[in-house]
Design goal:
Length: 309
């Protein structure tokens, strides 16, 4: 798909570029935040699975403002991939399933726990929905696991989920650690996508809980259909569609130029990928190294040379 068709297709992608955001889903959870005050008073925030960094960018702008409010504010971004530098954000290139990453986060906070942890982690999507949902759920539990090492009691956790058939299990697991769990679907997230966000407030682990990276919650129970669970065992999480009807609809196609009095200008991405997996292929193509050997003049191994009759 070409650049302009991508522009045309996703209104929130275009708006994020115009406003100078790397690419931003978190920005559109902010209508939810205005009522729930997730960000208010936060001094230490962790962005898990942060690359290329749009959530960190929002946190930095919201928590540090123009720089004056930045005293005491610390933001740590963690990802397996390297990220371009962002003002006011400390980056850790690491794995969220490792205890060493949790320890490094706490070191950056000088021994203090975080007030807020956010996670927009996503595995490389395979297209097999059950597999993708399962891996996403495992990644979320890994994020929850590391969160139990770094979050202060009373702190908040916001994470992306896929609302698949076992989502009830996820809600139940989160409810063990947080007194309030809500599922939020921002206007920027297409209706056709099973993506949504869990907003977990007031971290209150069970008494005597000792954070552990090999948390047994990560093991799935295959023989239970969690949607059939009833009574007190079934956790019903409120579902909230955030943003009002005046916001753009992410499932609609809008004209390229929203303001007809202005001329359309293509805006390049705010942050280009710094180490994309296709980098080597681009290099080979640019230097014409992808050219194939002309096989028509070389006889194939095992075949006898052809002669014109
Ligand atoms: N929140 C980011 C933003 O707004 O710019 C986008 C995050 S992207 C959808 C998902 C990220 O999860 C990828 O950059 C990937 O490297 C990261 N990720 C996946 N598994 C991870 C792991 N085990 N530890 C750290 N990062 C991981």
């Amino acid at each position: 798909m070409g650049r302009s068709s991508k522009d045309k297709r996703d209104i929130y992608y275009r708006l994020a570029k115009e406003e100078g955001w790397n690419l931003c889903a978190f920005l559109y959870i902010l209508p939810y935040d205005s009522s729930k005050r997730i960000i208010l008073g936060v001094c230490r925030a962790v962005d898990l699975c942060a690359a290329p960094g749009s959530w960190s960018q929002v946190l930095s702008r919201k928590l540090r403002g123009d720089g004056e409010r930045s005293v005491g504010v610390k933001i740590v971004a963690v990802d397996l991939q390297a990220m371009a530098p962002l003002p006011g954000v400390t980056q850790i290139q690491g794995d969220i399933t490792k205890i060493s990453t949790a320890q490094e986060i706490i070191r950056h906070f000088e021994g203090q726990p975080a007030d807020l942890v956010v996670c927009d982690g996503a595995p490389d999507v395979t297209g097999l929905h059950d597999v993708d949902e399962y891996i996403q759920a495992q990644l979320l539990l890994a994020a929850l696991n590391i969160t139990t090492h770094v979050l202060k009691p009373g702190g908040n956790f916001v994470a992306k989920i896929f609302r698949g058939k076992d989502v009830t299990l996820l809600y139940s697991q989160l409810k063990i650690f947080f007194s309030t769990v809500t599922c939020a679907k921002p206007r920027s997230s297409r209706n056709s996508s099973i993506e949504a966000f869990v907003v977990c407030q007031n971290y209150s682990p069970p008494e005597g809980y000792v954070p552990n990276m090999s948390n047994p919650l990560l093991d799935h129970c295959y023989d239970v259909d969690f949607n059939q669970v009833e009574g007190p065992n079934r956790v019903i999480v409120p579902f909230l569609a955030c943003g009002d009807l005046s916001a753009y609809d992410s499932d609609r196609t809008y004209p390229l130029q929203l303001d007809p009095s202005k001329e359309y200008h293509y805006l390049p991405p705010t942050q280009l990928p710094i180490q994309p997996p296709y980098q080597q292929a681009c290099h080979l193509r640019k230097h014409n190294l992808l050219a194939k050997e002309d096989v028509s003049s070389t006889p194939r191994e095992g075949s006898s040379p052809t002669h014109d009759l």
